[in-house]
Design a protein that fits this description.
With about 500 residues, the protein is α+β, with helices and mostly antiparallel strands. The chain contains 10 helices and 9 strands. The chain is elongated and about 180 Å long.
Length: about 500
């Protein structure tokens, strides 16, 4: 300890001496610069460097004694920042998930609201008053459908058992005319009804999908009847909440009329039947002996002829078994053909220099030439399997083979001469000779026709007596009692 204190005192003295020498040198340089105009610091550069180095070496222990050993400031390492970073990352993920869920819920609500507005505007058409107004449906389609929108209508067919449902697709340009055709063919109102059970899911690109399996399309007709088509509704909305695909899959349809109309149509027949019963009711003054005899009493008819049944009922407003009007069915068939011709239209637009007929000819030629080089290999010519066009109507496919050489149909069979059937020969009857006169073996009843049996095929073979004459009102006429058939007694020669 004493040696360390002595070393520190010596260093302190050296530092004081260095300071005093430095101060004296600086004062001398200042005086010389003021007197002789010499530049300050030119000759003292080496001395200054040595003195500064000595001062720095001497001052470090002196400064370290009162303050103690220097301590390094703690630097933030990666291990100390991991919990904070993880917490921040988790908070960011949770925030983004919450925002996505909120946006999804908002999108679901907006799409459901859009679908409800679609139903309201569909049923808000003025009907027959504005059936010639196509502008209403133009604005309707522009408001709810995307320019790439498609209405897919699946029609349920009921009159043919094995017939599958038919599906039609109506593109965006044809949608206004599709809705207009309904109201131009007797429909006065349309309703889209969705019951509880709507499901949804988000789609890529900020789209949304809504589906309801308990939906109905109700068509109200001007005749007073209405049709309810039940099925599934599916709607695909894009990011702008417009419909890209609206699909209605019909599972069943039923047409209804009002109860009042049915009663009014059935009244004439009902009144005539009541009058007939009144005329033909049994008279209480009639003698009981008349009823015992079982004679059929002639029926009386009312003065008025019977009316036709249910002639006043309104006729069906839809095509039989399809659930759509005849005009809508024709429109769907035309739309299907136009949809199949889209490649032809695209070919015509890509060749503006061609006219319609020239474009059609070139397109057909291109289509006919395309299968010849399918997959880079020419297709074989001619049909691979027999077709009905190769044989004339009513001819067997084996007929051309009958003319081939060596065919068994041309040459005779080798066993033909050995398989001749024996000729027909006259044989004498066992009961007599061929003479015209009667013989002892000839039956006296052989020249008579046999009377057909009166026993029916449905009855069993019992020897019950045959029934009597015809019956009237379930009562058999009185006549001769039936006699049982008895076997004839054979006359034997006396012995």
């Amino acid at each position: 300890m004493a040696h360390a204190q002595l070393a520190q005192q010596r260093l302190f003295q050296q530092q004081q001496q260095a300071r005093q020498a430095l101060m004296a040198q600086q004062a001398f340089n200042a005086n010389m610069a003021g007197v002789n105009g010499m530049p300050m610091g030119m000759q003292m550069n080496p001395m200054n460097a040595a003195q500064l180095a000595a001062m720095r070496q001497g001052m470090r222990p002196a400064q370290a004694q009162p303050q103690g050993p220097p301590q390094m400031a703690p630097q933030p390492g990666p291990q100390q920042m991991n919990p904070a970073q993880q917490a921040a990352a988790q908070a960011a993920v949770a925030n983004s998930m919450a925002l996505a869920q909120q946006r999804r819920e908002g999108m679901k609500g907006h799409c459901l609201l859009k679908l409800m507005q679609f139903s309201e505007h569909l049923s808000g058409f003025p009907g027959s008053k504005g059936k010639d107004d196509l502008s209403y449906w133009n604005s309707f389609v522009n408001q709810f459908f995307s320019t790439k929108g498609v209405f897919r209508h699946s029609v349920h067919i009921t009159d043919i058992e094995d017939q599958a449902d038919k599906q039609y697709e109506i593109t965006y340009p044809a949608l206004p005319r599709y809705f207009h055709t309904h109201f131009d063919s007797g429909v006065k109102n349309m309703q889209l009804i969705m019951e509880k059970g709507t499901t949804d899911r988000p789609l890529p690109g900020d789209g949304h999908w809504i589906e309801n399996t308990k939906s109905s399309l109700v068509y109200w007709f001007e005749s007073g009847s209405h049709l309810v088509a039940t099925g599934t509704v599916r709607a695909h909305f894009d990011a702008e909440q417009k419909i890209e695909l609206f699909e209605f899959l019909t599972s069943n349809h039923e047409e209804y009329i009002s109860r009042k109309a049915a009663i009014e149509a059935a009244k004439p027949v009902h009144n005539w039947v009541k009058e007939w019963h009144k005329v033909n009711s049994q008279d209480s003054k009639a003698s009981p002996e008349m009823s015992k005899k079982g004679k059929a009493r002639p029926m009386k008819s009312p003065q008025n002829p019977p009316p036709e049944a249910l002639v006043d009922l309104p006729e069906s407003a839809v095509k039989r078994g399809m659930g759509v009007t005849e005009a809508v069915f024709q429109f769907l068939e035309i739309a299907e053909v136009i949809g199949q011709m889209n490649p032809l239209f695209a070919f015509y637009h890509t060749h503006p220099s061609l006219g319609p007929y020239a474009a059609l000819e070139q397109y057909v030629g291109q289509i006919n030439a395309a299968p010849q080089n399918m997959n880079g290999q020419p297709m074989p010519q001619g049909p691979r399997t027999p077709s009905f066009g190769q044989f004339p109507m009513g001819a067997s496919p084996a007929q051309p083979h009958m003319q081939l050489p060596g065919s068994p149909h041309v040459q005779g069979s080798p066993a033909q001469g050995h398989m001749q059937a024996p000729g027909m020969q006259m044989q004498q009857s066992q009961q007599g000779t061929s003479s015209s006169g009667p013989s002892a073996n000839t039956s006296p009843a052989s020249n008579k026709r046999r009377r057909p049996s009166g026993v029916k095929m449905e009855e069993d073979g019992s020897q019950a007596p045959t029934p009597g004459g015809p019956q009237v009102n379930g009562v058999q006429n009185k006549g001769k009692p039936p006699t049982p058939r008895m076997a004839k007694r054979m006359k034997g020669n006396p012995a």
